[in-house]
Each structure stands twice: as C-alpha cells, then as structure tokens.
Amino acid sequence: MNVMEKAKNVEEYIIKSFKDLHQIPEVGLDLPKTSAYVANELKKMGIEVKEKVAVSGVVGLIRGSEEGKTIALRADMDALPIKEETNLPYASQNGNMHACGHDAHTAILLGVAKVLSENREEIKGNVKLIFQPAEEGPGGAKPIILYLNMWN
Description:
The chain has helices at about 5-10, 10-20, 30-45, 100-120, 140-150, and strands at about 50-55, 55-65, 65-75, 125-130. By secondary structure, the protein is α+β, with helices and mostly antiparallel strands.
C-alpha cells in the first residue's frame, strides 16, 4: 500500500470534514451534532459503530482480513465555550469554538478511517477508532477506556 498516495486521496475529504465540524463545536460530554456527524461518516465507510459511549463518544471498529492484534487510534471531539471571531466562511455557528484543534483531530481520524476501511484486506487484526468527548473536561477518557475493555 502506498500510504502517501492513499493519504493524498483523502485530503479533500479531511478538509471538508474539518470545515463541517468547525461550524458545530460542542462542549464537554454534550456533543449530539458532532457525534452524529462522526457516526454517520463511519457508517458510510462500512465501519462497525458504537454510539453514546461515555455519553457522546463514538467508537468504530475496522476488522482486518486476518486475525491479529487490535490497535486503537484516538481523537478528541469537544470544543470550548469561547465565541469565535474569525469571520471565516466556516466559522462556528453556535457561540462555542474549536480553539484547540479538536475539529482537526476528528477530521484527520475520519480520513485515516477512510483509508483503512478501503484497505481492510491488508490489515491483520483490528483497528478501533476512538472519538472521545470531554477531553477539555469533565474527563471523557476514563469512561471510554472502561468501555473499550468490554468491547472486543
């Protein structure tokens, strides 16, 4: 697999996802639009999806073509309660802001998911895609980790 070529092929998808997510920043554990966006994108890719993990987290599972170990890749999804004043055409529409780049983290992991799902025949084992809420607070990591230990 030519990873650089595959990555280049999803560049526009990542940019579109980033702009879409940038417009709907949500705070803490309350991420209904963000988590729905992520879950819908993963489902379009044919990825198994678990929703409402740690309230609003999303976990996807790509099963490779052969048995093997499972690895996990993680992105934060939450934003901050800060008013965006950038005047960008894709600026926040709700009074919050992705000031820490979590919209980029999420978009990049969606791009990775796309590349991996299109090449699952080359994967030995599984890949869990973790989209975590509440990285900025009140602490979404612990419930996500507890959940992951239960889902094989």
